[in-house]
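Researcher: Go.
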Amino acid sequence: MSATEAITTGEGQEAAFLLERTRETVNPELRRTVESLPGSMRRVAMYHFGWEQEDGTPATGNAGKAIRPALVLASAQALHGAGGRAGEVAGVAAPVRAAVAVELAHNFTLLHDDVIDKDVRRRGRATAWTVFGIPDAIITGDAMMALALRLLAEDPHPASARASSRLAACVVELCAGQQADCAFERQSHVPLDACLTMAMAKTGALLGCACALGALYAGAGPDEVDAMDAFGREAGLAFQLIDDLIGIWGDPGHTGKPAGADLLARKKSLPVVAALTSGTAAGEELAALYAGPMTGDDVRRAADAVERAGGRDWAQAHAADRMGRAVQQLSRAVPDLGAAGGLLALAEFVTRRTL
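Model: Structure:
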């Protein structure tokens, strides 16, 4: 199977199945771990994951798509199927704790990002900080990160120590990416290369770490682990590019956020920076709009300017290019891409979401 054939086969059904199976596998352990939090932190976390209402009554909520834990499990399965040594340790089911740890780390970033970005909606309802206050949201996020590392520290799997070290290093990189993102908001000019580097750290790093942890738990060697990390990073950057497009043109019914929310906040997302650095009249128009407060009409004008300046087309083309690079990296670890069908289905899912 060629890389091109591998990335274009399937129609999203396999990804949907994998994500549902991941939630069924991971959510019980995730919930048990979250319920171990004391007092008000437990209440904030249970609300954030959609398991409880604000008053603590049960809710049939949305705990998220589970993309990152699915990558952990699918990576372990791919390496196991490709001749990895997972069967010599605890089998391909062993990465469940690692998958939970990655999901906790991800939600640590979400709780903090919502505060930093002043986002008031997530997964179709009020963000935790707007309900419980900024201090409780931040502290709960900190506790989630501690839980993630504790899970790995207590896991008897022989790869757990390396997984813990890798996750901790990843979180430092995530924080550096978030800090750069915040700094960009205060700068009038942001180079596109710097914005890509920031996005790789802020989003690509954790997807890469998820794939690396799956490979570690499958008993893969250092070269294969690094290749899986690179696969996840490239796929993660493609994911961020598509996410940035959704932040401008996404359907509020699917995103749970107002149309053009990123533009209203004057975020320097990748399509915006591509437009601002395009040297076009539309790019100059966008810069003028970004120089002042945005109204509803300004948001529509800004979205049009991004498109006319080529930001939308560039982001879509660059996402496709990054996915091509991702598949090349994956083939280093899994030469027979037929054994990595789950990973390819997930990669296709995150880069072909509907705007």
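Model: The CA atoms of residues 7 and 279 lie 34 Å apart.
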